[in-house]
Amino acid sequence: MPTIMCKINRENKRKLAYQTTSSLATTSNTMKTCNCIRKPSCPLNGKCLLSNIIYQATITSPNSSNTYVGLCETNFKKRLYNHTCSFKHKRYRNATELSKHI
Q1: Which of 4, 18, 79, 89 is 20 to 30 Å apart from 27, CA to CA?
Q2: Quick check: 33 and 16 in contact, CB under 8 A?
Q3: By the 8 A CB rule, do 51 and 75 touch?
Q4: In contact, 96 and 87? CB cutoff 8 Å
Q5: DSSP 8-state assignment for residue 92
Q6: Which helix (H) or strand (E) holds 51?
Q7: Cα 85 → chain centroid
């Protein structure tokens, strides 16, 4: 039985391949896949502006380790910003499901 990580990787590869193929078909509407200032530090290796990505986060503490699986309908960079904001600011503490685990 495939693990969750295998399923996530398979789905992401399928979506990335589809988005790459569809973006090649429309040469007049070329989409940027990354707008990071420092390209080597891109969270998704140059594909941070893709949407509908399934991602996995591992939350570790001295007592336990939990896994969170999420899906972003917006581009991944916006979703990452929302998570980071919810970790840093108390008023956004319950804005994302991931922040409730931290």
Answers
A1: 79
A2: no
A3: yes
A4: no
A5: G
A6: strand 51-60
A7: 15
Phi, psi of 84 (to 5 degrees): -60, -40
Residue 44, number of CB atoms within 10 A of its CB: 19
φ and ψ at 92, to 5 degrees? Answer: -105, 15
Burial code (b: 16+ CB inside 10 Å, e: under 16) for 25-43 equals eeeeeeeebeeeeeeeebe
Quick: pLDDT tens for 7-46: 788 888 887 776 555 554 444 456 788 999 888 889 888 9
Tokens, residue 43 = 């969270």
In three-state secondary structure terms, 28 is coil
